[in-house]
């Protein structure tokens, strides 16, 4: 139970920690000053949402996300959100590919070549289908978490740990709702595709609570670190580099590599969600469908990484609030079926 639970936990974290999150850009867009309470609320909401999605997926033994949508909001509305999820996964995977290009620019790899490399490696991953996804996350994500936490703790140590949490100065708490909502659709897409592979209910709790606590802790530490370099963030496409400028160049290279791997895991998760849904009408091996999807996405990466995130992410955060409300109300309205 624990091994499978950790496998799904790393799949969830791998879906979350991508170009927007690991780079700091997504956290900075939603949080910033007076956001400690918002991040605590996000962790709680995230645990609830993951457990509900996985419970529905497990009970229906689903192979893609449509059965989960049907249970959450009925067949009529689920058709609308089915289209929304496809558009969302498509556009956010474009953002991941763009993030891959932006990250490799640090080591003087041309932007277009960086996007081609990450797209090609996503296609290669799907030679092993679902097993390739889960194995890759179980290997990469623990390494990324350890390095990211180490960098942030070292930075806080350098600054003398100036972290403060005052309840009377926590006015940004509504951001917890939009930030959680932003990440709902990819979670439904990915977790809805593994229902037939979850063996026990205990796996759901290990994955949900573990991922929520880890992401909540990292988010708080990361946000506090970004506040220390707020005046420099405007100068960087990737806010993490504003923190890394305090370290030797080799640390920037190491974190650039790990950031790129985080982008890779989320790009793979996006393609995985699209692939699992498109198998209803597209036949052929997984890698070939993945190649087809990447080929369509590649030209759209020219819009730029930070531009795509600053425009699309807040918009999706608001649109997804209804899905978030449905998830939070589901255990109350259907407590006997969970």
UniProtKB/TrEMBL annotation:
Keywords: Membrane, Transmembrane, Transmembrane helix
The keyword Membrane is annotated on this UniProt entry: yes
Top-level taxonomic group: Bacteria
Keyword Transmembrane helix attributed: yes
Transmembrane region(s): 7-24, 36-58, 79-99, 111-128, 135-155, 175-195, 204-222, 249-275, 287-309, 315-333
Name the UniProt record assigns to this protein: Membrane protein YkvI
């Amino acid at each position: 139970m624990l091994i499978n639970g950790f496998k799904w936990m790393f799949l969830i974290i791998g879906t979350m920690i991508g170009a927007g999150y690991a780079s700091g850009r997504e956290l900075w867009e939603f949080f910033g000053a007076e956001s400690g309470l918002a991040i605590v609320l996000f962790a709680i909401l995230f645990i609830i949402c993951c457990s509900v999605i996985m419970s529905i997926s497990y009970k229906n033994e689903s192979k893609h996300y449509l059965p989960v949508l049907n249970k959450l909001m009925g067949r009529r509305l689920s058709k609308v959100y089915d289209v929304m999820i496809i558009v969302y996964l498509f556009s956010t995977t474009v953002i991941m590919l763009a993030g891959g290009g932006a990250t490799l620019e640090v080591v003087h790899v041309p932007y277009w070549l960086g996007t081609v490399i990450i797209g090609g490696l996503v296609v290669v991953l799907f030679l092993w289908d679902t097993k390739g996804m889960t194995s890759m996350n179980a290997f990469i994500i623990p390494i990324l978490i350890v390095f990211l936490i180490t960098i942030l703790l070292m930075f806080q140590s350098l600054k003398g740990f100036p972290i403060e949490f005052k309840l009377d100065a926590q006015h940004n708490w509504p951001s917890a709702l939009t930030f959680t909502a932003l990440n709902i659709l990819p979670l439904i897409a990915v977790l809805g595709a593994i229902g037939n592979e979850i063996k026990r209910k205990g796996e759901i709790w290990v994955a949900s609570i573990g991922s929520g606590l880890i992401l909540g802790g990292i988010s708080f530490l990361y946000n506090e670190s970004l506040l220390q370099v707020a005046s420099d963030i405007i100068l960087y496409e990737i806010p993490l580099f504003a923190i890394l400028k305090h370290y030797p160049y080799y640390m920037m290279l190491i974190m650039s590599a790990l950031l790129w791997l985080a982008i890779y895991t989320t790009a793979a998760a996006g393609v995985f969600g699209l692939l699992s849904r498109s198998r209803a009408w597209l036949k052929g091996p997984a890698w070939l469908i993945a190649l087809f999807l990447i080929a369509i996405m590649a030209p759209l990466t020219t819009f730029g990484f930070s531009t795509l995130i600053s425009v699309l992410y807040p918009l999706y955060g608001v649109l997804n609030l209804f899905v978030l409300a449905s998830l939070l109300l589901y255990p109350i309205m259907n407590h006997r079926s969970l």
